[in-house]
């Protein structure tokens, strides 16, 4: 153990730099901290006139609020990253990329990209107690990256709200045709002559055609969506879907009406209920006829030759980035409500392991049902899992309709999808609202009023933005928004990693994490911090390289979005590219604005100053800033820029080496 401690003490960035302050300096700093702490409280009282209730007063940050307990913290984080991506896209990718062999690139990407970047985002949000915009005060020039994250989140919120309306529609429809389900049979008004269902003996005409469609597929296309031939052909809105969309947004609003406090309570249901329902569906699916063939296709098929294809590694990395919601601002926001000394690495490890375990369980649920459907139809499993977009609303409903007491199982399945969608949506809303409250502190309105009015305004806007997509051409817009919003999401992740690691600096990032988590010289702490370095810091250094390769592969193997055999016209693809490039445009526009308006002096001075942390960067509370070696927040940032020496650090001078200081007099 002594040798272990010796190795541990020689690790880079380990030793905390203690500063020897004089008694007079420490007294001045303490007085300054108390002064600014008093000014912050007076400012909060005068501007927002908020009086925290008794429960909020127990929080570490009474004005902003914290999670009531660690259970709520874990459930909220886990619920955010567990979504229909795990339930639907992951099984499809497994069937497409070699079955269980896909787990190899998936797990490698999870631990080399997913875990370290989740750890980075949670640590930065927790350290600064700021949303996805304010957290980039560490390098103000790239604050537009946070704005780009909000743009991506807003677009994702619109189409995820529409998916929620589809799920609610199916959930309600499962009660309407008891003891059966409405998508069974071909004798309905919405069916065409190509519909075929071997259980429907009264409609044999379609049996003569070679190009038949399933009854569940026609139910989704012709009754739920009333889909048009193309995106350019519109029509009347579907009032049933509009009612489901309104209901969904009312549910989301009620979840965020009290901010972090209501989210924490709702997470007990929206996070645990899907797991309970998935276990029930898994047990039922495993005892079905043909389930074994589906599970063997999922877990028994291992085509390791597919690992030679770079597209498999691209799909795995892209899936990790998208399904963990990296670079969308949600993890920054959730972590901003953590208490300062919460163990961010523990939370990150729980999130990634839960994500992997849930994906495997979801795959077993889906393939057990698909195996039973293949057995009933006497076809191969791979012939059924051909399009992941129709998996939730065509394939699985068809499989569930063949079970005894099918409405009960359909209710469980669509309730699972609804809770997953709600969990993701209310975090997206809270991400946008929290960032707005952080940046619009000059608004002279009570903060407690803004906490329920801003979500109401945003939910109404999202509802109005979703209604136009309930037309017969709406589904084409949903697929276009989904594929375009995440086409270059790897760029946001890549830029964020480079900014934090190589501009803000690995040294200061590690130092900030140590001040939060804490450490000592015991052997147990040495083992723990070696694990943090092995799974957190060291993979994070190589993550930009892996993401760069994945981004290049995404560009090289780019496929235009399609809906079945339908291909989008050029004007629609142009709109998709505008959606794709909007976050990068926000980064560029804000950088120009920051250099041209927010900074003064020569261009070189402005540029160098913009790459240094702003005076507002650091922990939110005065006592935590002093504990971490940060000066108290200035009462007015503009006064610091005017009166202070350009480029003067907001950290205590003793914490900097002379080599890291910029001599602006020579510029």
CATH class of the largest domain: Mainly Alpha
The class by helix and strand makeup works out as: mainly alpha
> Whole-Å distance between the termini?
51 Å
As a percent range, the share of helical residues equals 55-70%
Total helix count?
25
Averaged pLDDT = 81
Rg (C-alpha, Å): 27 Å
For the secondary structure, the number of strands is 4
Task: Count the domains.
Answer: 2
CATH architecture level-2 label of the largest domain: Up-down Bundle
Largest sheet: 2 strands, parallel
Low-confidence stretches: 1-57, 203-209, 636-667
Describe the structure.
This protein has 667 residues and is mainly α. 64% of the residues lie in helices and 1% in strands. The protein contains 25 helices and four strands. It is globular and about 75 Å long. The two termini are 51 Å apart. The N terminus and C terminus are likely disordered.
Short précis:
Helix content is 64%, strand content 1%. It has 25 helices and 4 strands. The protein has helices at residues 2-9, 23-48, 54-57, 70-81, 84-96, 103-128, 144-173, 215-224, 239-256, 260-270, 272-286, 291-300, 310-323, 330-336, 344-377, 391-400, 406-439, 447-466, 474-485, 489-517, 523-556, 570-598, 603-610, 622-627, 637-643; strands at 195-196, 213-214, 562-563, 566-567.
List the helices and strands and how they pair.
Blueprint: H1 2-9, H2 23-48, H3 54-57, H4 70-81, H5 84-96, H6 103-128, H7 144-173, E1 195-196, E2 213-214, H8 215-224, H9 239-256, H10 260-270, H11 272-286, H12 291-300, H13 310-323, H14 330-336, H15 344-377, H16 391-400, H17 406-439, H18 447-466, H19 474-485, H20 489-517, H21 523-556, E3 562-563, E4 566-567, H22 570-598, H23 603-610, H24 622-627, H25 637-643
């Amino acid at each position: 153990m002594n040798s272990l401690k010796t190795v541990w003490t020689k690790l880079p960035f380990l030793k905390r730099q203690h500063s020897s302050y004089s008694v007079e300096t420490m007294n001045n700093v303490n007085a300054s901290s108390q002064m600014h702490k008093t000014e912050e409280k007076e400012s909060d009282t005068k501007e927002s006139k908020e009086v925290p209730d008794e429960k909020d007063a127990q929080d570490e940050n009474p004005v902003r609020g914290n999670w009531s307990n660690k259970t709520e913290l874990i459930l909220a984080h886990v619920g955010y990253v567990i979504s229909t991506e795990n339930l639907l896209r992951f099984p499809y990718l497994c069937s497409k990329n070699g079955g269980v062999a896909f787990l190899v690139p998936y797990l490698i990407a999870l631990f080399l990209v997913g875990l370290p970047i989740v750890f980075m985002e949670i640590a930065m949000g927790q350290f600064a107690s700021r949303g996805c915009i304010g957290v980039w005060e560490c390098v103000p020039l790239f604050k537009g990256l946070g704005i780009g994250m909000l743009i991506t989140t807003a677009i994702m919120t619109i189409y995820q709200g529409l998916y929620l309306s589809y799920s609610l529609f199916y959930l309600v429809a499962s009660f309407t045709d008891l003891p059966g389900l409405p998508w069974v049979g071909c004798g309905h008004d919405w069916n065409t002559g190509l519909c075929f269902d071997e259980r429907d003996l009264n409609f044999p005409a379609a049996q003569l055609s070679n190009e038949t469609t399933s009854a569940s597929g026609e139910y989704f296309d012709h009754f739920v969506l009333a889909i048009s031939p193309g995106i350019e052909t519109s029509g009347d809105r579907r009032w049933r879907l509009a009612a489901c969309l309104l209901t969904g947004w009312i549910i989301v609003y009620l979840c965020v009406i009290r901010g972090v406090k209501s989210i924490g309570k709702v997470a007990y249901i929206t996070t645990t209920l899907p797991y309970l329902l998935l276990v029930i569906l898994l047990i039922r699916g495993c005892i079905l006829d043909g389930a074994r063939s589906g599970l063997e296709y999922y877990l028994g098929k291992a085509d390791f030759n597919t690992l030679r294809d770079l597209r498999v590694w691209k799909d795995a990395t892209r899936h990790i980035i998208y399904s963990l919601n990296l670079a969308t601002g949600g993890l920054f926001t959730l972590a901003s409500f953590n208490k300062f000394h919460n163990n961010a690495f523990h939370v990150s490890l729980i999130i990634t392991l839960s994500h992997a375990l849930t994906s495997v369980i979801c795959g077993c649920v889906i393939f057990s049902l698909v195996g039973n459907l293949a057995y009933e139809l006497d076809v191969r499993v791979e012939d059924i899992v051909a399009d992941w977009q129709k998996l939730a609303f065509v394939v699985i409903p068809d499989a569930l309709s063949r079970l005894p007491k099918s409405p009960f199982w359909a209710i469980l399945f669509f309730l699972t999808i609804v809770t997953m969608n709600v969990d993701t949506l209310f975090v997206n809303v809270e991400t946008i609202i929290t960032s707005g409250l952080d940046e619009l502190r000059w608004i002279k309105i009570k903060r407690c009023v803004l906490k329920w009015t801003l979500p109401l305004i945003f939910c109404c806007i999202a509802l109005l933005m979703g209604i136009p997509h309930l037309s017969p051409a709406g589904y084409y817009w949903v697929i276009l928004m989904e594929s375009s919003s995440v086409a270059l999401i790897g760029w946001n992740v890549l830029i964020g990693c480079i900014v934090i690691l190589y501009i803000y600096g690995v040294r200061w990032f590690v130092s900030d994490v140590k001040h939060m988590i804490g450490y000592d010289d015991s052997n147990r702490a040495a083992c723990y911090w070696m694990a943090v370095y092995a799974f957190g810091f060291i993979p994070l250094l190589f993550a930009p390289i892996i993401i760069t390769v994945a981004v290049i592969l995404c560009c090289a193997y780019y496929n235009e979005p399609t809906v079945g055999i339908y291909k989008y016209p050029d004007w629609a693809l142009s709109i998709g590219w505008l959606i794709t490039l909007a976050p990068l445009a926000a980064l560029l526009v804000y950088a120009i604005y920051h250099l041209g308006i927010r900074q003064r002096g020569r261009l070189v001075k402005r540029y160098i100053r913009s790459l240094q942390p702003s005076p507002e960067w650091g922990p939110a509370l005065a006592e935590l800033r002093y504990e971490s070696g940060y000066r108290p927040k200035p009462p007015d940032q503009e006064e610091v820029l005017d009166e202070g020496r350009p480029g003067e650090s907001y950290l205590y001078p003793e914490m900097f080496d002379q080599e890291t200081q910029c001599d602006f007099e020579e510029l």
